[in-house]
Amino acid sequence: MSKEYRFIGKATPRKDAAELVTGKAKFIDDIKLPKMLYGKVKRSPYPHANIKKIATSKAEKLAGVEAVLTYMDVPHWKTGMPPIACVLDRKVRFFGDGVALVAAETKKIAEDALELIDVEYEKLPPVYDVEEAVKPNAPLLYNEIPGNVLPQGCPIYGPHPLQEVVMGDVEKGFQEADFTIEATYAFENFPNPLPIEPPGVIAQWEGPDKLTLWSCNSGPFFHRYIIQAFIGLDIDIRSIAVSTGGSFGSKAAYPQIVFYAAALAKVTNRPVKVYYTREEHFHAFTSRPGSRIRGKVGFKRDGTVTAISADWLVNTGAFSNWTQAQVAVGCGEAQLMLRCPNWKFKPKVVVTNRMPAGAVRGFGGQELKCALIPILTLAMERAGIDPVEFFKKNFVKPGDGYYWRDGNWYVYRGVDFTKAMGKGAEVFGWKEKWKGWGMPTATQGQKRRGVGVGVHGNADVGEDASEAYVQLRPDGTAMIYSAISECGMGQRSNVCKMVAEILNLPLERVNITPPDTLVNPFEFGLGGSRGTYAIGSAVIAAAEDAKHKLLEKAAAVLEATPEDVDTQDGVVFVKGKTEEGISWMAVMGIFSTCTGFGRYEPDYSLSNFMMIFVEVEVDLETGEVQLLRVVPATDVGQIIDPPSLDNQIHGSLGSAGIDTALFEESILDRATGRTINGNMIDYKWRTFLELPTFENVILETPFPSHRFKAVGVGEITCAPGPSAVLMAVSNAIGKRMHDYPLTPDKILRALGKIEGGKE
Relative to the CA of 702, which of 176, 313, 407, 622 has its CA 20 to 30 Å away? Predict the structure, then answer.
């Protein structure tokens, strides 16, 4: 970018930095209300069972217990798409499903009370695999869901949400192909994003139809909207987002926990906190949906894709929180990656006896592409095409069209990402390292190196409406009214930078209101990398409106036209006469403010982009895979805050990111339905001592977005990584790998070195 800014594009201290490092920031477990009770959940030890009897009298008699609830006396609220999951049910559908609720004066008393609840179960056969679940004789999870296949549809995306991609003439496309490839790949190891802080909520009824919620979430208005939709639009909900210790997509809204807290708060008439333990977070919250694609691709030898036909089987676990929404976004993102005129891409969302699936960063697209890209690479190998050249040819270009999540057709008007791909390849040294499909980059003894590349883009950068006020005050300060949560990314601080830039104020004079629906205008919430473009547009418009009003008032005082007046550091002046300036107070008076309003409407004609190059080393004797180097390449239009962007990209590794290709996985014991590595010792994460080399390649080609020509990329940084690692390992060992994560036993089996291997 050639334009010089005062704050934009420069590293500046975060507005909340001092609060965070001094421990003053309030997280959900720091909030304690007067007379607050602690809620705990008794959970099922079985993945599928009916409750025959449940006895709560002993728990009710325990001193300090204020309420015990079972399926017989909870409110009739339901969640899911469609809403089929009760607050508590007579039937449990996954290990850890809720059986009873307790509210007590302390956490210890509540936990002790859970042990006093006696439950007799009738065990039922479970089903965990999507293809097993749709068989005619499969165990049925819900009587109202025949065949365990959920109906299509996602109400929040409108009346005709994208639930499949069907266009052109697939059979004709296959006839035009030089060859076709058929294969099945899956991305279904159910990694857990595991933010540092488990989910939690405090519920307090202010009256029979007035509910206040405190929660760690990424959007208080969206949280309010979702809860209201499930418990009743006649309930007035105030949603307050406290500091959030990470989300990684998983804390957009979580109705089940809210149900627990709200039900207990209603019966006790006291505030109730339900805060999950780490064990509950592992076993009973939500994970990424499982993804399996059986696909056929028509290919020309120059890399043109003539047709694609595929069944996409999506494992949503015990119920769907957002899976149909993820399907809609994934179907759109597939079109951004693949310029193909003929599609027959048919998803199917299936319920199984696993913990319910929910939103995780990479929302739909990571699940889809980690299974679809490997199928495409088989065709690339057959045609002898370099994958970087294939992605350059096929990734969306200005003027290309696609259906997006709302089912409408959009024409892309953003930048061409080919330049970013080329620069990433150059920095990585792709031309020198790429030796061809199934060929290692280097060999040293029993160790082989391989390289791979993945790609991702998302038009949700412009998703959903946002509103903001910017209020200029006589003392030369500005307050932003926007319900932006803080989930660790620094978005609240970054919109302050935008306003400070527009008003030419010192950054310390610009602040933002707490994320509270009672105080702020509507703001959907953080997700889909929408913070920079969607939220930024609303805040920018509000700041410009407020500045315009200020300068109009100042012009009258200074006897000039508004066009001839400007402001800096809380002083207004005629341009060229800064020494004759007057304060904002002199313009407004003591008892006045200037308040601007901004609103952003959804726009799906722009996309962000991320390409990730990786190099791995595989030990052929042990099967160990080491990730040596990662080069992410992107184009963001204009960097708003360099450290924030760098950290977002570095954060692509863990928390259901790149490392889901190597060791992050939830291991299910199919005999019990329990995740056997559901703890922070057995669930494998990368330590700081094992970090690979990172070299971020960030271009700044102006986007037609808003004043600062920027789009966000934070949410998509992880999505291209797993398929890139799969490609790199396959090339290193000369054997096609089909299954995530690439643990040593799978490597050795592929090499034929342990029983069950294939030559």
Answer: 407
